[in-house]
Amino acid sequence: MKKDRNFDDLAKKFAENIYGTAKGQIRQTVVWQDIEYILEQLNAASPLQVLDAGGGIGQISQKIAALGHQVTLCDLSSEMLTLAEQEIAKNGLVEQYRLVHSPIQEINEHIPAPVDLILFHAVMEWLVDPITTLMGLLDNVKPGGVISVMFYNYNGLLFKNLICGNLTHIEQGMPHRKRFKLQPQQGIKPDEVYQCLTEAGFDIMGKTGVRTFHDYMHHDRMGDYSFEQVLDMEQKLCRQEPFLSLGRYIHVYARKPLTEATPTLMANLNHSNKDKG
């Protein structure tokens, strides 16, 4: 029976490879721009309640916590949580955090009420049933709150295999190659994520391609550039089509409508109809 990926065996290596590289820096930069916009839209007078679902060491949520917000970080891996605890203490953010050792699917047991913001970043591609897990998380967003979802893009994975000439691998359905332990187990089709959000009544606020071209470059034998140029170009292209949809990851964020907005709208419509009569 398949199980969700637990990173107890690779926690330190995973953290170093994800966050200590050019790929990680690009990812952090473009996603943080979106998070800043989300926080601006939430415009809270008091600290937000944030859930970092499958948050690993909490790189993004620590930046949110540093702004004064309260974060619950859950992860399946106890080793990841140990690393997160060390990083959080080192950055002086212990008072802003609550760490929960739990599968995402059981997070309802650990949070008392829906939250203002959920981060669900680079987790879906490691799950047995990613869309069902996402659907379950949506119930934990309070009305007016936002979910921020970043996933390993199926289209980006397909494009990478096409330009590398891995046509047989594509024809076989692009099965996960076990020798690449840090490569996600599957690509997630963007339309399935967007459909899940909209069918749940969420309004998609924005989409961003994460590493729209960096991973496709032949870094050893092409071009004249600096990393600063690459980062600048990624930021320029990441929200434009067709580049957005070719990102190795896609970040999409969506807002749950305020439930009290519906009666207000109906009242306005009724009033308008009376005026016409």
Automatic annotation (TrEMBL):
Name of the gene: cmoM
Organism: Photobacterium kishitanii
Catalytic activity as recorded in UniProt: 5-carboxymethoxyuridine(34) in tRNA + S-adenosyl-L-methionine = 5-methoxycarbonylmethoxyuridine(34) in tRNA + S-adenosyl-L-homocysteine
EC number: 2.1.1.-
The protein's name in its UniProt record: tRNA 5-carboxymethoxyuridine methyltransferase
Family (UniProt): Belongs to the class I-like SAM-binding methyltransferase superfamily. CmoM family.
Enzyme class: transferase
Binding sites annotated in the UniProt record for S-adenosyl-L-methionine: R27, G54, G55, D75, H121
GO terms assigned for molecular function: tRNA (5-carboxymethoxyuridine(34)-5-O)-methyltransferase activity
Record keywords: Methyltransferase, S-adenosyl-L-methionine, Transferase, tRNA processing
GO biological process: methylation; tRNA modification
Biological function: Catalyzes the methylation of 5-carboxymethoxyuridine (cmo5U) to form 5-methoxycarbonylmethoxyuridine (mcmo5U) at position 34 in tRNAs.
PANTHER family: TRANS-ACONITATE 2-METHYLTRANSFERASE, TRANS-ACONITATE 2-METHYLTRANSFERASE-RELATED
Domain Methyltransferase type: 51-147
SUPFAM superfamilies in UniProt: S-adenosyl-L-methionine-dependent methyltransferases
HAMAP family: tRNA_methyltr_CmoM (MF_02057)
